UniProtKB/TrEMBL annotation:
It comes from Streptomyces solicavernae. InterPro entries: TPR-like_helical_dom_sf. This is Tetratricopeptide repeat protein.
Protein backbone atom coordinates (compact mmCIF):
# COMPACT_ATOMS: atom_id res chain seq x y z
CA UNK A 1 0.00 0.00 0.00
CA UNK A 2 1.61 3.27 -1.12
CA UNK A 3 1.17 6.41 0.98
CA UNK A 4 -1.28 9.08 -0.19
CA UNK A 5 0.23 12.14 -1.86
CA UNK A 6 0.88 15.19 0.33
CA UNK A 7 -2.09 17.60 0.36
CA UNK A 8 -1.80 20.72 -1.74
CA UNK A 9 -2.02 24.17 -0.23
CA UNK A 10 -2.16 25.00 3.45
CA UNK A 11 -2.99 22.46 6.11
CA UNK A 12 -6.54 22.57 7.42
CA UNK A 13 -6.87 24.84 10.41
CA UNK A 14 -8.05 22.82 13.38
CA UNK A 15 -11.28 23.86 15.00
CA UNK A 16 -11.03 25.80 18.25
CA UNK A 17 -12.86 23.09 20.17
CA UNK A 18 -11.67 19.88 18.56
CA UNK A 19 -9.82 18.93 21.76
CA UNK A 20 -6.49 18.36 20.09
CA UNK A 21 -4.83 15.34 21.79
CA UNK A 22 -1.41 16.94 21.24
CA UNK A 23 -2.32 19.34 24.08
CA UNK A 24 0.43 21.92 24.63
CA UNK A 25 3.22 19.98 22.88
CA UNK A 26 4.08 22.36 20.03
CA UNK A 27 6.92 20.17 18.78
CA UNK A 28 4.49 17.28 18.47
CA UNK A 29 1.98 19.47 16.64
CA UNK A 30 4.63 20.53 14.12
CA UNK A 31 5.80 16.96 13.55
CA UNK A 32 2.22 15.78 13.05
CA UNK A 33 1.58 18.47 10.45
CA UNK A 34 4.74 17.43 8.61
CA UNK A 35 3.73 13.77 8.81
CA UNK A 36 0.33 14.55 7.33
CA UNK A 37 2.22 16.04 4.37
CA UNK A 38 4.44 12.99 4.04
CA UNK A 39 7.54 14.36 5.77
CA UNK A 40 8.21 11.57 8.24
CA UNK A 41 11.79 12.75 8.83
CA UNK A 42 10.39 15.34 11.26
CA UNK A 43 8.77 12.55 13.26
CA UNK A 44 12.03 10.62 13.27
CA UNK A 45 13.85 13.66 14.68
CA UNK A 46 11.13 14.26 17.29
CA UNK A 47 11.21 10.69 18.57
CA UNK A 48 15.00 10.61 18.61
CA UNK A 49 15.00 13.77 20.74
CA UNK A 50 12.35 12.31 23.06
CA UNK A 51 14.55 9.38 24.03
CA UNK A 52 13.49 7.14 26.95
CA UNK A 53 11.10 9.69 28.46
CA UNK A 54 8.46 6.99 28.36
CA UNK A 55 5.41 9.08 29.22
CA UNK A 56 6.32 11.69 26.62
CA UNK A 57 7.23 9.06 24.04
CA UNK A 58 3.96 7.23 24.57
CA UNK A 59 1.97 10.46 24.38
CA UNK A 60 3.66 11.54 21.17
CA UNK A 61 3.37 8.20 19.42
CA UNK A 62 -0.28 7.70 20.36
CA UNK A 63 -1.13 11.18 19.05
CA UNK A 64 0.89 10.75 15.87
CA UNK A 65 -0.73 7.36 15.29
CA UNK A 66 -4.17 8.97 15.23
CA UNK A 67 -3.33 10.84 12.03
CA UNK A 68 -5.20 9.12 9.15
CA UNK A 69 -2.05 8.98 7.01
CA UNK A 70 0.26 7.78 9.79
CA UNK A 71 -0.06 4.08 8.95
CA UNK A 72 0.98 4.52 5.33
CA UNK A 73 3.87 6.88 6.04
CA UNK A 74 5.13 4.70 8.89
CA UNK A 75 5.18 1.74 6.54
CA UNK A 76 7.22 3.74 4.04
CA UNK A 77 9.62 4.74 6.82
CA UNK A 78 9.98 1.08 7.77
CA UNK A 79 10.87 0.19 4.18
CA UNK A 80 13.68 2.75 4.28
CA UNK A 81 14.82 1.87 7.83
CA UNK A 82 13.56 -1.66 8.60
CA UNK A 83 15.43 -1.83 11.93
CA UNK A 84 14.07 1.47 13.26
CA UNK A 85 12.27 0.90 16.55
CA UNK A 86 10.70 4.35 16.21
CA UNK A 87 9.22 3.55 12.81
CA UNK A 88 7.90 0.24 14.11
CA UNK A 89 6.35 1.90 17.17
CA UNK A 90 4.63 4.52 15.01
CA UNK A 91 3.35 1.81 12.69
CA UNK A 92 2.02 -0.13 15.70
CA UNK A 93 0.19 2.86 17.18
CA UNK A 94 -1.29 3.75 13.80
CA UNK A 95 -2.41 0.15 13.30
CA UNK A 96 -4.17 0.18 16.66
CA UNK A 97 -6.11 3.31 15.74
CA UNK A 98 -7.02 1.74 12.39
CA UNK A 99 -8.30 -1.34 14.22
CA UNK A 100 -10.30 0.74 16.69
CA UNK A 101 -11.91 2.54 13.74
CA UNK A 102 -12.76 -0.76 12.08
CA UNK A 103 -10.30 -0.25 9.22
CA UNK A 104 -7.90 -3.05 10.13
CA UNK A 105 -8.18 -6.45 11.75
CA UNK A 106 -7.27 -6.35 15.47
CA UNK A 107 -4.99 -9.34 14.94
CA UNK A 108 -2.99 -7.39 12.36
CA UNK A 109 -2.59 -4.47 14.77
CA UNK A 110 -1.46 -6.87 17.49
CA UNK A 111 1.17 -8.29 15.15
CA UNK A 112 2.47 -4.77 14.47
CA UNK A 113 2.72 -4.09 18.18
CA UNK A 114 4.60 -7.31 18.86
CA UNK A 115 7.02 -6.56 16.04
CA UNK A 116 7.71 -3.15 17.56
CA UNK A 117 8.17 -4.67 21.01
CA UNK A 118 10.73 -7.11 19.64
CA UNK A 119 12.84 -4.24 18.27
CA UNK A 120 12.89 -2.37 21.60
CA UNK A 121 12.22 -4.75 24.53
CA UNK A 122 12.65 -1.98 27.11
CA UNK A 123 10.10 0.36 25.51
CA UNK A 124 6.62 0.26 27.11
CA UNK A 125 5.00 2.01 24.13
CA UNK A 126 4.20 -1.07 21.98
CA UNK A 127 2.60 -2.60 25.07
CA UNK A 128 0.72 0.64 25.67
CA UNK A 129 -0.63 0.37 22.12
CA UNK A 130 -1.75 -3.20 22.82
CA UNK A 131 -3.39 -2.01 26.05
CA UNK A 132 -5.17 0.77 24.16
CA UNK A 133 -6.58 -1.83 21.80
CA UNK A 134 -7.53 -4.25 24.58
CA UNK A 135 -9.20 -1.47 26.59
CA UNK A 136 -11.98 -1.54 23.98
CA UNK A 137 -11.73 -4.91 22.27
CA UNK A 138 -9.97 -7.23 24.72
CA UNK A 139 -10.92 -9.33 27.71
CA UNK A 140 -10.37 -8.23 31.28
CA UNK A 141 -7.52 -10.73 31.54
CA UNK A 142 -5.86 -9.17 28.49
CA UNK A 143 -6.14 -5.68 29.97
CA UNK A 144 -4.59 -6.73 33.28
CA UNK A 145 -1.78 -8.66 31.59
CA UNK A 146 -0.90 -5.81 29.23
CA UNK A 147 -1.02 -3.24 32.02
CA UNK A 148 1.50 -5.38 33.91
CA UNK A 149 3.74 -5.43 30.82
CA UNK A 150 3.68 -1.63 30.62
CA UNK A 151 4.17 -1.19 34.34
CA UNK A 152 7.09 -3.62 34.34
CA UNK A 153 8.89 -1.24 31.98
CA UNK A 154 7.69 2.04 33.50
CA UNK A 155 5.93 1.67 36.88
CA UNK A 156 4.35 5.16 36.85
CA UNK A 157 3.13 5.11 33.25
CA UNK A 158 0.46 7.81 33.17
CA UNK A 159 -1.60 6.75 30.15
CA UNK A 160 -1.59 3.08 31.12
CA UNK A 161 -2.98 3.89 34.57
CA UNK A 162 -5.74 6.00 33.02
CA UNK A 163 -6.69 3.16 30.68
CA UNK A 164 -6.76 0.73 33.59
CA UNK A 165 -8.97 3.03 35.66
CA UNK A 166 -11.40 3.44 32.78
CA UNK A 167 -11.77 -0.31 32.39
CA UNK A 168 -12.01 -1.07 36.12
CA UNK A 169 -14.70 1.58 36.57
CA UNK A 170 -16.96 -0.47 34.33
CA UNK A 171 -17.00 -3.45 36.68
CA UNK A 172 -20.24 -4.08 38.58
CA UNK A 173 -22.02 -1.15 36.99
CA UNK A 174 -25.37 -2.24 38.41
CA UNK A 175 -24.34 -1.85 42.06
CA UNK A 176 -24.56 1.95 42.10
CA UNK A 177 -22.54 4.12 44.47
CA UNK A 178 -19.99 1.98 46.27
CA UNK A 179 -17.10 3.65 48.13
CA UNK A 180 -15.36 0.26 48.26
CA UNK A 181 -15.46 -0.31 44.50
CA UNK A 182 -12.23 -1.79 43.12
CA UNK A 183 -11.51 1.23 40.92
CA UNK A 184 -11.01 3.32 44.06
CA UNK A 185 -8.79 0.66 45.59
CA UNK A 186 -6.69 0.54 42.43
CA UNK A 187 -6.29 4.33 42.30
CA UNK A 188 -5.28 4.48 45.97
CA UNK A 189 -2.81 1.64 45.47
CA UNK A 190 -1.26 3.41 42.47
CA UNK A 191 -0.81 6.62 44.47
CA UNK A 192 0.81 4.70 47.33
CA UNK A 193 3.23 3.00 44.91
CA UNK A 194 4.24 6.24 43.16
CA UNK A 195 6.80 8.81 44.33
CA UNK A 196 5.43 12.01 45.93
CA UNK A 197 5.92 14.13 42.80
CA UNK A 198 4.12 11.70 40.48
CA UNK A 199 1.03 13.01 38.65
CA UNK A 200 -0.61 9.71 39.54
CA UNK A 201 -1.66 11.65 42.66
CA UNK A 202 -4.63 12.81 40.55
CA UNK A 203 -5.69 9.23 39.72
CA UNK A 204 -8.35 8.98 42.49
CA UNK A 205 -10.07 11.99 40.90
CA UNK A 206 -9.97 10.26 37.52
CA UNK A 207 -11.40 7.11 39.09
CA UNK A 208 -14.26 9.09 40.61
CA UNK A 209 -15.12 10.68 37.25
CA UNK A 210 -14.89 7.37 35.39
CA UNK A 211 -17.19 5.71 37.90
CA UNK A 212 -19.63 8.58 37.43
CA UNK A 213 -19.53 7.98 33.66
CA UNK A 214 -20.52 4.37 34.16
CA UNK A 215 -23.23 5.00 36.77
CA UNK A 216 -24.76 7.85 34.76
CA UNK A 217 -24.92 5.67 31.66
CA UNK A 218 -26.65 2.88 33.56
CA UNK A 219 -29.14 5.32 35.12
CA UNK A 220 -29.48 7.24 31.84
CA UNK A 221 -28.98 10.39 33.86
CA UNK A 222 -29.96 13.60 32.11
CA UNK A 223 -29.04 16.09 34.84
CA UNK A 224 -25.66 17.87 34.68
CA UNK A 225 -22.99 16.12 36.77
CA UNK A 226 -22.71 19.04 39.18
CA UNK A 227 -26.29 18.31 40.28
CA UNK A 228 -25.82 14.55 40.56
CA UNK A 229 -24.51 14.47 44.14
CA UNK A 230 -21.62 12.26 43.02
CA UNK A 231 -19.05 14.85 44.16
CA UNK A 232 -20.72 15.85 47.44
CA UNK A 233 -19.95 12.89 49.70
CA UNK A 234 -17.30 12.96 52.40
CA UNK A 235 -15.02 10.53 50.59
CA UNK A 236 -15.27 12.51 47.37
CA UNK A 237 -14.43 15.76 49.17
CA UNK A 238 -11.36 14.19 50.78
CA UNK A 239 -10.16 12.89 47.40
CA UNK A 240 -10.63 16.27 45.73
CA UNK A 241 -8.88 18.15 48.53
CA UNK A 242 -5.87 15.83 48.52
CA UNK A 243 -5.52 16.10 44.74
CA UNK A 244 -5.89 19.89 44.72
CA UNK A 245 -3.38 20.30 47.55
CA UNK A 246 -0.94 18.10 45.62
CA UNK A 247 -1.38 20.27 42.52
CA UNK A 248 -0.73 23.46 44.48
CA UNK A 249 2.52 22.04 45.84
CA UNK A 250 3.89 20.02 42.93
CA UNK A 251 2.33 21.56 39.78
CA UNK A 252 1.97 18.45 37.63
CA UNK A 253 1.14 20.53 34.55
CA UNK A 254 4.74 20.09 33.37
CA UNK A 255 3.98 16.45 32.59
CA UNK A 256 3.26 15.81 28.88
CA UNK A 257 -0.28 14.75 29.79
CA UNK A 258 -0.61 17.24 32.63
CA UNK A 259 -3.46 19.14 30.98
CA UNK A 260 -5.53 15.93 31.10
CA UNK A 261 -5.11 15.81 34.87
CA UNK A 262 -6.00 19.49 35.16
CA UNK A 263 -9.21 18.98 33.18
CA UNK A 264 -10.26 16.12 35.46
CA UNK A 265 -9.43 18.16 38.54
CA UNK A 266 -11.20 21.30 37.26
CA UNK A 267 -14.24 19.21 36.40
CA UNK A 268 -14.26 17.70 39.90
CA UNK A 269 -13.86 21.06 41.63
CA UNK A 270 -16.62 22.60 39.55
CA UNK A 271 -18.96 19.68 40.28
CA UNK A 272 -18.06 19.98 43.97
CA UNK A 273 -19.12 23.64 43.92
CA UNK A 274 -15.63 25.03 44.62
CA UNK A 275 -15.71 27.85 42.08
CA UNK A 276 -12.52 29.66 43.16
CA UNK A 277 -10.45 26.48 43.04
CA UNK A 278 -11.99 25.50 39.70
CA UNK A 279 -11.21 28.97 38.34
CA UNK A 280 -7.53 28.63 39.24
CA UNK A 281 -7.43 25.36 37.33
CA UNK A 282 -9.23 26.81 34.31
CA UNK A 283 -6.63 29.57 34.18
CA UNK A 284 -3.88 26.96 34.08
CA UNK A 285 -5.69 24.81 31.51
CA UNK A 286 -5.90 27.76 29.10
CA UNK A 287 -7.01 26.61 25.64
CA UNK A 288 -6.06 22.96 26.25
CA UNK A 289 -9.43 21.46 27.10
CA UNK A 290 -9.92 17.71 26.83
CA UNK A 291 -13.12 15.96 25.81
CA UNK A 292 -13.03 13.71 28.88
CA UNK A 293 -14.48 14.19 31.44
CA UNK A 294 -16.54 17.11 30.08
CA UNK A 295 -18.39 14.72 27.77
CA UNK A 296 -19.66 12.63 30.71
CA UNK A 297 -22.39 11.46 30.41
CA UNK A 298 -23.05 11.88 26.68
CA UNK A 299 -22.74 15.69 26.73
CA UNK A 300 -21.29 18.07 24.18
CA UNK A 301 -17.83 18.54 25.74
CA UNK A 302 -17.22 21.96 24.18
CA UNK A 303 -20.46 23.35 25.58
CA UNK A 304 -19.96 21.67 28.95
CA UNK A 305 -16.39 22.96 29.29
CA UNK A 306 -17.31 26.47 28.18
CA UNK A 307 -20.28 26.69 30.53
CA UNK A 308 -18.30 25.42 33.51
CA UNK A 309 -15.37 27.70 32.77
CA UNK A 310 -17.57 30.78 32.41
CA UNK A 311 -19.48 29.95 35.59
CA UNK A 312 -16.32 29.36 37.62
CA UNK A 313 -14.52 32.46 36.40
CA UNK A 314 -17.64 34.55 36.89
CA UNK A 315 -18.10 33.35 40.46
CA UNK A 316 -14.45 33.47 41.50
Amino acid sequence: MSPPPPPLGRARKRAAHDFDPALDDTELTAARTALERGRWADTRALLAATGPDWDRRGHRLVVLGQSPAARAWAQEWRLVEPESADAAALSACAAVWHALRGKERPESAQDSCRAAAALAPEDPTPWLALLLLARTLGSEEDVVRLFDEVRHRHPQHHHAHHLMVGRLAERRADLGQDPLHEVYDFASWAVDQAPPDSPLAILPVVAHAERYRVLAQVARAAAPPERSGHWSGRRARLVMKAAFDWWLEWDGAQHPRGRIDLNFLAHAKFCEGRAAEAAALFHRIGPYATAEPWAYPGRDPAKAFGAARNAALGAA
